[in-house]
Amino acid sequence: MTDASAPARRAAARPDTLRLLLNNTLATAGLAIFALIVLIALAAPLLSLPDPDATAPVDRLLRPLADGHLLGTDALGRDILSRLIWGTRVSLLVGISATLIAAFFGSLIGLVAGYAGGRVDTLLMRGIDMVMAFPYILLALAIVAALGPGLLNALYAIAVVNIPFFARNIRGIALGLSRREFVDAARLSGKSNAQILFLEVLPNVLPVIIITMSTTIGWMILETAGLSFLGLGAQPPQADLGSMLGEGRKILFTAPHVSIIPGLMIFALVMSINLLGDGVRDVLDPRLKSGALTRPVARTAVAKGNMPDDVAPRRDAILDVRDLKTEFRFGGEVFKAVGGVDLHVGRGECLGIVGESGSGKSVSAMSIMGLVPTPPGRIAGGIALLDGENLFTATDERIRQLRGSAVSHVFQDPLSTLHPLFTVGAQLIEAIQAHRPLTKAQARAKAADLLKLVRIPNPAERLKSYPHELSGGMRQRICIAMALANDTKVIIADEPTTALDVTVQAQVLALLDALRREKNTGVLFITHDFGVVSAICDRVAVMYAGKFVETGTTEDVLKAPAHPYTAKLIDCVPVLGQPERRLDAIEGRPPVVNNLPDGCAFAPRCPRAKDDCSEAPIPLTELGENRTVRCLHPLSAEAANG
Amino acid sequence: MSAYIAKRLLAAIPVLFGLTVIVFLIMAMIPGDPATAILGSYATPENVARLNRQLGLDKTLVEQYVIWLGNMLQGDFGRSYTLNRPVIDEVMERFSATLVLAGTSLLLCSVFGLIAGVVSAVRQFSFTDKIITFVVLIGISVPSFWLGLLLILVFAVNLRWFPASGMFAIYGGGDLPDLLYHLALPAVTLAVVATGVIARLTRTAMLEVLRQDFIRTARAKGVTENAVIYRHAFKAALVTVIPVIGIQAGFVLGGAVYIETVFQWPGIGSMLVKAISTRDLLLVQGGVLVVAAAYVLFNLAADVVQTLLDPRLR
Ligand code: SF4
Question: Which domain of life is it from (chain B) (predicted)?
Fold first, then answer.
């Protein structure tokens, strides 16, 4: 899905941080509740509350809403509302202080370890690992045990046990930063290590420190309250929320409100912080930004309507696609990755689609069997006929049956496309059993035959291998074997040799070519490389900005490219011995497909561009039999016309 | 595989030593005269003198540590002055109760956390997903000791479904149904936070895995969507979730301190709290060491399970 990643990144470009945070309703609610609690706690001295420690035995254990005591009184007749607000002050103060202490020492350790690297790093991190080997709360207990119960000691204990979280997170980032150029530059300019650390590295790790703080502060408030609850933190007459809860527990059965109220406050406080923290993390951590983690459904969504249904299939075609349109939606923007493509593949025929990445060639191919991820992808129009059967209106179950049997796929990087946790045998057997009622033993025998078919020696042994134990070429042979598991009619191969090195590439191509002739299988072959096209494709379609710009037999197109873009692509064919000389040889980049110009999309990069090129949409014109081009001033116009 | 387990076991040894060093150092932080601190202010002078000798306080810190560790390796954790019995006996007895509670909770949080996470991921953005996400958020924000009190009020006091405290009925109890009956409330309370954490992580892990190329391959093979999710995606997600379950073992073991206090479960957590307030430091030290060692072993087990699942780690 490399084709969609560029627009995705653009669409996610960061607007104002605070606005993003406020866009998240839950985070806003968290912020509001937290702010409210903090404000009330801060304003405690101004609120003319009764003295939180004034006992009044006559008024003991009043229920909430009693006269003069909104939340009632506790076992000593003290006003719970007043104690609650003052207790919240203490809990907040302790929680925030613990967070700051942990953040300070943890970040310092992390910065030094990450920046210094080497032995200092090892030593510090070993220590941190040791501390982390303890169950969190237990270590805090041991520290409190040694120092003696008390609020300050509880604060230290909670701060200490949280240091490792900061140290670990910050070290990782600092380690990465210390290898960056700007640090080297600072070093060369004669800055001291301390200067570099605090002036260059620190500002860059600040977001991570803030994220870690926002995710741990709730915990720290909770844990200090917990220690107080156990009687190990705040000691009477001092009270925080935890110790109020702990005292109330003794009279839980007779006066539950005394313990429920402070508990509710801790809960509200921690919950609001967690809501806010999630929001902060979403905003500051680009990996988790909204939309980054959407789950693609089993099949690409197909827009209702605007589908032609009275199309007469081409007689010679096994796969016949008309006017295919596929788009991606990010936020409000629509990216027209495929803007109306016609293609057909006959039995035993190989059609190549060539183009740069981002041209829409993979999306076109993946649309056919509904393998474009939705969200954000959607098939917006067109029709795809497999042996006359409409694929876009077929049921999900029908599509599942066709996938891997009538139409199979071979993808680019065989390491990431095979499941890392299953043996290749298990994966092959699964592919076979998905479509045939075979026993495990029969399927295994069939799988071994398939491996033999793709010329893998020692098949029975190989079946027991995991993908990571095989070479790249071997893995791709496995993928081809999988594609051939069920008498497929069409293989859709998406850059199947791109991840392989040149000699292996040639072997795999030869294998694929031989097998499709042997089995009379149609192949839709996606590549960016005309060298590969010439090795296997009968016909070729060149794609640019979501549309075909030239089609024809491989021979004709290679001999006399008509479209300037085709000519450039052919020029880019890697010469043996210089594999790097690839597409970067075309200057400029393909356009982003959310806002295409009316005229020729290639005009900005085209050496032959004239004024009329940008005026109106350029139609695909026939150049001869089986030959079309989308260009007003084609290269071989003279030749083709004459 | 067994070679791998042996290797991991060996690697755990330095960690265990590290634990003893940290505990030793924390105990060395005790202000004032350690013998008095350990034995309490009412200790007889003979006892103080004997402990001082036993602790080897005339020696260097390193020598003290070696002696201390040597005693410990022989199972001599000292005597609890409040209980007047060997620390190791008390700790082991208490620890088995904690293990029952924490083990049950760990099981509950793994099962429910995984189920909630998978359902949430599979129905991403649905109403179910939103409900689960919100409940999970409540779960990880709620103070477990407070939740325990609420559950006691509702299920023990009002509904009378479960007992409010203890591990067995005082009269006529002691069998498995009785244990489960007493276990229900504390085990659920203890599991809540960890369930939330595991559910969250499972959801993220599933969403990440479902975007992987090998999931597209599985779909391209024509495997049913159920197999895609529960065989292909879940197994891969489990590899990331297992270590987190190992870490949650630490939170469950630690959280047991609160829950055992709330439900008066006769485990190591409630023992520790009492020992800290009575300054029975040898008991604290023994308890902390045993629980920490158990945690190391839990993590080791999680490592091994992860390796069993993922051939790339072997
Ligand atoms: S139409 Fe014009 S700009 Fe476009 S490729 Fe042809 S000559 Fe170039």
Answer: Bacteria
Question: Out of A138, A148, A260, whose CB is closest to B288?
Answer: A138
A471 CB contacts (<8 Å, ≥6 apart)? Answer: A504
CB A540 within 8 A of CB A617: no
Question: Ligand 1 pocket, A561 CB below 6 A?
Answer: no
A573 within ligand 1 shell (Cβ under 6 A): no
Q: How far is CA B251 from CA A135, A351, A375, B102, B274, in A?
A: 6, 58, 37, 10, 20
Fold of the CATH domain A317-536: Rossmann fold (3.40.50)
Structural domains of chain B ordered from first start: 2-73 (no CATH), 88-313 (1.10.3720.10)
pLDDT in tens, A27-78: 888 899 999 999 999 988 887 777 777 777 777 777 777 777 777 777 777 8
* Cα A324 from Cα B224, distance rounded (Å): 26
Cα separations (Å) of B225 from A201, A363, B118, B214, B240? Answer: 47, 21, 14, 14, 22
Answer for the pair B190, B255: CB distance below 8 angstroms, yes or no: yes
Q: Is B89 helix (H, G, I), strand (E, B) or coil?
A: helix
C-alpha–C-alpha distance, residues A629 and A641, integer Å = 13
∠ CA B189-B194-B198, rounded to 5°: 140
Question: What's the token pair of residue B131?
Answer: 């409900």
Do residue A466 and residue B140 have CB atoms under 8 angstroms apart? Answer: no
Measured CA to CA, the distance from residue A59 to residue B15 in angstroms comes to 55
Pick the CATH number of A93-238+251-288 from 1.10.3720.10, 1.25.40.390, 1.10.150.390, 1.10.10.10: 1.10.3720.10
CB A495 within 8 A of CB A362: yes
Pairing of strands A490-494, A522-527: parallel
Rounded to whole angstroms, how far apart are CA atoms B51 and B157? 47
Domain boundaries, chain A: 93-238+251-288, 317-536, 552-641
B251–A136 CB contact, under 8 Å:
yes
A258 min Cα distance to partner chain B (Å): 12
B88: Cβ contacts below 8 Å, ≥ 6 apart: B75, B76, B77, B286
Q: Tell me the C-alpha distance between A10 and A629, whole Å.
A: 31
Determine if the peptide bond prior to A574 is cis (ω within 30°): no
What distance in Å separates the CA atoms of residue A152 and residue A618, rounded to the nearest whole number? Answer: 77
* Residue A318 DSSP symbol: E
Q: How far is the CA of A356 from the centre of ligand 1 (A)?
A: 17
Nearest CA in chain B to A415: B214
Instruction: Please indicate whether, in this complex, the C-beta atoms of B276 and A137 are within 8 angstroms of each other.
Output: no
Query: d(Cα A322, Cα A381) in Å, to the nearest integer?
Result: 9
Radius of gyration for chain B, computed over Cα atoms and rounded to the nearest angstrom: 23
pLDDT at residue number B263: 92
Interval A455-491: pLDDT, tens: 888 988 999 999 999 988 889 889 988 988 888 899 9
Take residue A245 and report the two structure tokens written for it: 């809860």
User: Which residues of chain A does B300 touch, with a Cβ-Cβ cutoff of 8 Å?
Assistant: none
